[in-house]
Design brief:
The protein contains 8 helices and no strands. By secondary structure, the protein is mostly helical.
């Protein structure tokens, strides 16, 4: 069955088509949920919430642009919505601080370690870091998505980079 046929059947609330769509995209969308969630359990919950939203809004998809991209946007927004409700970004007098550069040269810093330390960042820093560095959103876009100011986005990114830089430097010193 082609993707277009699958989408058409999902629009008709066909359970088998919904299950097939879930099977086809769950792994990709779970990776997104995991990237923005503090742990696996919350990522799993977000994945389920995202698919509920996808299936309830699938009739809005008009075939313009990438269907996978449409689902990814819904998934990111689903995860971020949980953080908007928690108000984790309400920080009084958030000062803009200088962004440190984090150099990951051609050294052997394991990818697993890098992913682990990104995942360990406090929620507000991890979200901004992932949106800016890994997904290429601008600070304005991030501010709009998270309901924060551009300055808070920049500050959270700088703080995330400082934490990561410290952890990478500590890792390098342990290796020597």
């Amino acid at each position: 069955m082609t993707l277009d046929e699958l989408i058409t059947r999902c629009k008709k609330k066909d359970g088998k088509a919904q299950a097939a769509l879930y099977q086809q995209y769950a792994t990709i969308l779970f990776g997104i949920c995991l990237k923005y969630s503090p742990n696996r359990t919350e990522a799993e919950d977000s994945l389920q919430d995202a698919f509920i939203t996808i299936f309830s809004r699938i009739e809005q998809y008009e075939g313009k642009g990438s269907f996978e991209g449409w689902m990814k946007r819904i998934t990111v927004n689903t995860v971020l919505q949980k953080y908007r409700k928690k108000r984790i970004f309400d920080i009084p007098n958030e000062e803009q601080i200088e962004e440190p550069s984090v150099e990951v040269e051609n050294e052997s810093i394991p990818l697993d370690y890098l992913l682990k330390i990104i995942q360990e960042l406090p929620d507000r820093y991890r979200l901004v870091f992932n949106l800016y560095v890994l997904d290429g959103y601008s600070h304005k876009d991030i501010a709009d998505m998270l309901g924060i100011s551009d300055g808070t986005s920049k500050s959270n990114l700088a703080r995330a980079r400082m934490i990561l830089k410290t952890k990478i430097e500590n890792f390098r010193h342990q290796d020597q």
